[in-house]
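Q: Structure tokens for this one, please.
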Amino acid sequence: MSMTIIYLAYLVAASLFILGIKGLTKPRTAVRGNQLSALGMFIAVVVTLFDQSILSYEWIIAGVLLGGTIGALMATKIQVTAMPQMVAMLNGFGGGASLFIALASFLDPDSATHIVALISIALTVLIGSVTLSGSFVAFAKLQELISGNPIKVPGNKVINAALLIAAIGLSVAIVLDPSNTMLIYALVAVSVLLGLFLVVPIGGADMPVVIALLNSYSGIAAATTGFITGNTVLIVSGSLVGASGIILTQIMCKAMNRSLFNVLFGVMAEGGETIDADEVYAGKVTSSSPEEVAMLLETAERVVIVPGYGLAMAQAQHAVRELASVLEARGVQVLYAIHPVAGRMPGHMNVLLAEAEVPYEQLIEMDEINPQFEQTDVAIVIGANDVTNPMAREDKGSPIYGMPILNVDKARTVVVVKRSLSPGFAGLPNPLFAKDNTLMLFGDGKKAIVDLTQSLKEAD
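A: Here is the predicted structure, written as tokens:
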């Protein structure tokens, strides 16, 4: 295959990646964007295989079949509720793939022959190892294999700084003395530890930010792998993923009032006073029933639904869509308030509601919906906790103080659908539950919404 055709194919693949990412920015075009990106990757892989003049494809075909089967099963079998941990796992696999390519290239005497390759190998091993171990810690937290709460490590800042300095020192040593193979293994060990210590202290409330950052790391590792192998399209695709991941991380940081520096070095959600839930709730919580809430909705003209991770856990998205349809049939305007970090990964609620075929134009972002709550008759909060907690506005001693939230408490009536008064990922009580204009509808999210819808239908 001539170099002209190869470079043209790589240009087409890179263009498809860019168009794909552009499509992923909006729910309406997300599926097409995903398909364009997949087509670009297919072209890149096929052209690369032909470019390398491979004599035997048996192992490659076996890998494609095995990987494709696993990927198809994951895509079809894993519930939307488990999507965050799957994304974390895939980030880890991406980092791991880059790591092993770098190791193979370093041990091949014909590959690591120039300074650019050696620098790229050192960077790939460092970033790939951090991504691999950090992603699997994130997966373990999300899957509740280990505690999702922040795990304090004594001297964590000092440990992280020491590991980072050691990793940089080993990287320099590898470039200066590539004949010493023990250096590369030491770099892997130090970098794996760094990934562990960066993510272990971070709690579930901050996991959307961590997933976005690890996604960026996997892209950067892929880009540096492109320099090792001399593959242009890998450099382009990795750079796109790395850059978009950093931008998304910055957006997530702003949405949670976090510092990007703290995210990079595993220092998040520190400080704050212990708050007694009994003090917040004692004698102030008003319980309700589906029938009572249905009576409220009968006279409502504007209803805003606020989805959270509890909705995902209850798999209540279709029940919510049915409730919205019943309300709309009665002439009620129904909107959905989307917080950037509701759920456990960026865009989690958008994906969840898209599965239930909620119209895209009804999904309203936080900055746009917040001014509208004062004109809202009923705000229905389903499984959302930290993103509606007024402590973020009012309590300077709270760990979430300063985090932008959905101002649902400004609605005329707030209905909170929740199993209990248990805290969210941040581990804080929510004063919203005790406000005078709040009614608590306790129970499983899906059953509560189904019962509410049925009560509303019976009122007709």
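A few notes: The beta strands are 302-307, 333-338, 363-365, 378-382, 413-418, 438-442. DSSP finds 18 helices and six strands in the chain.
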